[in-house]
Amino acid sequence: MPLTVEDKYQYWLSYAKNDMESAEIMLNSGRWFYTQFMCQQAIEKQVKGLYIFFVDDNVPRLHDINNIFDRYKDKLPDILTDDRAKLFDTLSQLYLRSRYPDYTSTLASFATRDSAQSIYEKSKEAFEWLLTMKPQSES
């Protein structure tokens, strides 16, 4: 039996939830850079899950959250605020730079409790908001 759109969305969402939980664990253990990185992973996966509903199941292999989100934002019931767009840009930069070892150590040296806490709180809020963007199934 082929997977439904809902099945595919749930696949992405389950990994996104796991990443948000991991971000909280990293925050509570003082691993500031990894808190931020796991927030990036959670939001990216959630945005890709929504992509399946609004575009198709050929999810782009990109890590620029706003780029992916822009492909379907006009189909959403709510607008993307400037604050969320800025968060998505910040998170995307964390991913891109973390792919290179030299950047990772540099970024890790700049990560602080305050920056990690701020990104975590904003990501958690964005995560909850993104959950409300999923189309309701007709039953």
Number of strands: 0
Number of helices: 6
Query: Rg, please?
Result: 15 Å
Strand content: under 5%
Distance between the termini: 21 Å
C-alpha geometry: globular
CATH homology group: Nucleotidyltransferases  domain 2
Question: Regions with pLDDT < 50 over 5+ consecutive residues?
Answer: none
What is the CATH class?
Answer: Mainly Alpha
List the secondary-structure elements in sequence, H or E: HHHHHH
| CATH topology title | Four Helix Bundle (Hemerythrin (Met), subunit A)
Description:
This protein has one domain (5-131): Nucleotidyltransferases  domain 2 (Four Helix Bundle (Hemerythrin (Met), subunit A), Up-down Bundle). It starts with a helix and ends in an 8-residue tail after the last helix. It is globular. The model has no long low-confidence stretch (mean pLDDT 90). It is mainly α and 139 residues long. The protein has 6 helices and no strands. Helices cover 71% and strands 0% of the residues. The chain has helices spanning 5-28, 32-54, 65-70, 82-98, 101-110, 113-131.
